[in-house]
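Researcher: Quick one. two chains, 808 residues in total.
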Amino acid sequence: MSKQGRRHGSGSTGGLLILLWDEEAGAQRLNCTVAAAGSWCSGVEIKALQLDLKGRMFPHVSPSLEPDPEDLIPFTELHGSLRLLLSFQMKDARHWPSDWQSDVEAVLQAFSLANAGIQIHLKLKFAQKTSVRDFRAKIKAKVSRADQPPLLLDVSCPEQKRWFLSKPHGWAKRASWCQGGHPVDGGRLPLGIPPQAMDGGLLGDLSVRLVTLLHPCVLQYPNMPTELKSIKVLVYNPCNIPVSGPSGFFQTLPSSMDCQHLGLRGLQCPAHKDPEFRVGTVFTTEQWENEKKCDDEEQESSHLPVQQSLLLFLLLQHRNPFCSHLSDFVAADMLIEHHLEEILCNNKPAVMAAIRTEIGNAMKAQNQRKKQQEKLNSAAEVILSSTMSIVSCSSNVDFRNACFDLMKVADTHALSSHLGESLRRVMSWRFLPVGRCYSTQMEENLLHHGSTKSEI
Amino acid sequence: MESGSTQFFFLIDKLRIQLLNSIEGATEKDYFQEEISPFDSGVGLQMSSGHSVTTVKSNCLASVTKFAQILKILSVIYRLVQSNSYATKRDVYYNNTQLFGSQRSVDTIVDDISCMLKVSRRALHVMATSKGLIAGDLCYLEEDGTRIDCRSSSAAVSVSSNVSGIRNIVSSAKFVMIVEKDATFQTLLNDDFCRKLSPCIMITGKGVPDVNSRLMVKKLWDTLQIPIFALVDADPHGFEIMCIYKYGSVAMSFEAHSLTVPSVMWLGLLPSDLQRLMVPKRSLLPLTRRDENKLNSLLKRPYFASQPQWQKEMELMQQSKVKAEIQSLADIAPDFLTSIYLPNKLRYGGWL
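Model:
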């Protein structure tokens, strides 16, 4: 660790293993083992860390059994020798919420997003069942800035966000989908430490770094209209560990946003708890409806805008020249988490303005596409009416039949409908390759090697 | 000055014979070379076979509006051809001003369609609004049977908007004079030029000529086979206008064969005339930066390979760095243009 109180790892890759198991069926206590290996935890005094963590977090917990070595071998084979191994027992699992596993997975997923170099392995062995889940970034992007520590994000587009609208007939071979996103660094915002936090011992410089990520990426389809459907805010402590969002602070976000200025009708914070919403705060947007209603379902599917989600990372950063030991950093992080609501409220105008700017940038791109779409639609109407004027006025049977045959229709009414649909598909599906996009042609490589790009 | 004697037109008649001989002596190969080059002294500027193709896409934001405009104009043309009716470019523009934005858009697209379909604009049933005027010893019938007599001494006739439909041209004119500007044309009309130097025809395109004015000059040459002289200002712009009549424009190069009259002669105002006639210095204007740039550009054009005397005149202008309008001759004497300058030029062969 640097003597100047900065947090550095000598690398950001490796593995993290979470083992949860019960000794026997119906056991009341659940055992947990956390193991780490790889360069991301090098330079840390492991023994001191283990003692410190045990003392801080589990002072009254009985020591557990050691984990089954068979569970550790695959991990060490993949990531090298263990640098951290911590085991403990947890309280009565029978009183936990029924979906506690989903909560654990959600936290690990959020962790993986901001620590894409670390592969996370979760293994659950209880109630005579075993389940294994790996969290591994398929596509990584390094977000670098001169005055900021580098950040490795998982930018792969989630499965549920991928969209597979039907492609136009005979589409060009070069068309492909971008499988990832392109993070935008919103910069660093200094934060004032409120008096309560200072009294608690939190000193030094505190700031928050904002990074946004939009899914799915449609940069390669410049004519495709988009619609921002949801905004998810994830807060991370200075060690890049996701923290429970200060719900009180973020509940006021919708009222603090000038939605009209952003081009939105409103922002809402839904109450439901889908897996996606377990960590972080999620807002759904309300858009102004100005699309024509189509009777034809097939037509409607090709006209609908692509629904995008904005992921907003709030990465807290803390620097204290008097922090030199790992325990100091752990203590500072705990203080930050404890006083997070107060910290953000203390800096509310600046934080809200920064969030508004990031959302505004995403909306700007969407509004730009909307204007372009209007231009295309306006031109499409003229093209269609002019073409139909020629065909319907023609007295040349051969010419008319040739037109019908080409479009595989029987009469001018059907011709108009099919021609209009074809034209709109051609316009919407215009493909322009973008060098920084992660195209589908790379999928085979990604399966084996993954992909990392530097975005900034 | 009366011009009843044949002596006055002796050199003009001689010129006419030379021109006719040069036409008869030419083989088809001279006019229609196997390898079409961009410039042919017998035709003018023409579209080369290696021309570039522009693609207008319907799915590109930058070109989708143009794509729609082209389709719209094609549909208008289709209806016109089908109904055998005609419309001017102005009519087409007003059909949908919001779509087209400007008259220029319509003009450009109509020319593009004409080039793309390899037909004359007349075949598209879209006519240019004529702006030219004509006067002199000339009678003809319009396509609809209207009889046009250009011999009125006080008023000129507008150039027909359907030049290709003109028939039964009757004229005993010895020459045709193209006048660059309307102001000069009106001066000549007021001075009864056509009667004084009868029989003759004069025509103006009022600056850069429209297609109909060019078609009219071409038609007069094809029908009457008489010398055609250009009277333009002694400046780069005037010279360029003369070249449009003679060699054509890049924009209409695809129709060069129907628009150019390579036999056009430069009557005046020559840069050398300014010195020779001692035009007062107060009437001379310095060349602007733009004039100099245009002059440099003109000197690079392929015209001068076959016109060494023209090149000399332009180089003289470049050296003297002055220009003058035809109106500057009025500073010598009020009626100098019609009473002295033009009659002497025409009588003594003062053309290039």
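Chain B has 15 helices and 15 strands.
Researcher: Thanks, that's what I needed.
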